[in-house]
Amino acid sequence: MTETATHPTGAFTPPTRFAVPGRIEVDGRVAGAWQPATLAEIRRETPRASTFRLAVPGWAGHVPGQHLMLRLTAPDGYTAQRHYSLASAPDGSGHIELTLDHVRDGEVSGWFHEVARPGDRIEVRGPLSGFFAWPGDRPALLLGAGSGVVPLMSMVRHHRARRLTVPLRMLVSARGPEELIYAREFGAETTPVFTRRAPGGTRVGRLSAEHLAPFLAEPPAGGWEAYVCGSNSFAEHASRLLVAAGQPVERIRIERFG
Question: From the centroid of its chain, how far is CA 88?
Fold first, then answer.
């Protein structure tokens, strides 16, 4: 069921989840089972974010945009669980990647950034959720901010690995170049937006209608499927810009956090 809401003024408030044609179904039997995972590699992305590569021999595969549940268990039996988006493209290698911000006082992210070392064992369950998934079958317009770029990067990597010809474009917002996760991997498909600090000659400011205009003025055949991921405030702002620019409401998928 599609749900929308309006303020008393009648202004449109985008819902978090839309009922979208082509929704990906999740195999509950596979996704419901906890699987052992071994930390294989740690890569620094920014001063606050790192990528953690996990070996999961029993991983059944995923669709870009899906996430998993992760569980840590302390020696005394205490457990902590968190949902994290998958950053890697599905490749059948038995490895998956997560990119985590180091959240101040974060119980799980703190362990990963301060304690974890290659060889450590954890548990994962998934893949989970199909509403934000993109199998590569339709043009995709991706809008992310901060760590909201993580599931979108899975889509970009999938697009490259499969050499897909379907159009894909991404706009990603960060406060400055040093906080732009995956900056070394971005290519012609990506437009960075810097809100506080930018290289010389680059305009500083929030994502705007001007940034979206080149993509929505002349959309590809069949139109875009828009994916928005970021904080609550970014998700609200970006989805309103999309709707104002003519993107159909039923073709906007949103993941938000915070």
Answer: 10
What is the pTM (predicted TM-score) of this model? 0.87
Angle of CA points 220, 142, 218, to nearest 5°: 25
DSSP state of 251: G
Residue 138 DSSP label:
S
The β-bridge relationship of strands 225-231 and 140-145 is: parallel
Mapping DSSP to helix (H, G, I), strand (E, B) and coil, where does residue 148 land?
helix
Distance of alpha carbon 158 from alpha carbon 210, whole angstroms? 28
Write the pLDDT tens digit of every residue in 172-205.
999 999 999 999 999 999 999 999 998 877 788 9
Measured at the alpha carbon of residue 149, what is the angle toward residues 108 and 231, in degrees to the nearest 5? Answer: 70
Contact 171, 139 (CB under 8 A): no
C-alpha span between 216 and 251 (Å, rounded): 13
Per-residue pLDDT tens digits for 121-161: 999 999 998 899 999 999 999 999 999 999 999 999 999 99
